[in-house]
Amino acid sequence: MNTLLLATPEQEEEYGLKFHHRAYLHVQDSKDLAIWLPQADLVIDLLLHEQPERLAQYQTQGKADKLTVFFNANGVDIAAFAQAYAPLNFHLAGLKGTPLLNKEVLQVSLLRDDSRRAVDKAFVFLATLYELVEEKK
User: Fold this and answer.
1) What is the residue-wise DSSP string for the chain?
2) pTM for the complete prediction?
């Protein structure tokens, strides 16, 4: 899986420790994202909650239903977050909890139920465990 990571240097370090056995490209600006996104299968965008307009970029430049995007969804209602760009043609899932990555089982919330298979596939690739958590209403 071609994997892109959008994160601060500290978050990249945490990601590297958790997934040291998987190659990824750390993308630091939107110009680089535009170059690499059409080839990506998996995006871990830990900055998306601060730049929701990037959902439109994933929608138009990504691989549609072959793209899975994880983001930092702490304190975010995923449905409300994505509403302006709905319906999304890619799989969007939120990472929840603190710490976000530095734990044995990652917590994930889905925007849509039909994303479960894509999320399963991503976690098999990442070789780590996850549990689905419900969005708080």
Assistant:
1) --EEEE--HHHHHHHHHHTTTS--EE--SHHHHHHHGGG-SEEEETTGGG-TTHHHHHHHHS-GGG-EEEEE-TT--HHHHHGGGPSPSSEEEEEESSSSSSSSEEEEEESSGGGHHHHHHHHHHHT-EEEE-PPP-
2) 0.95
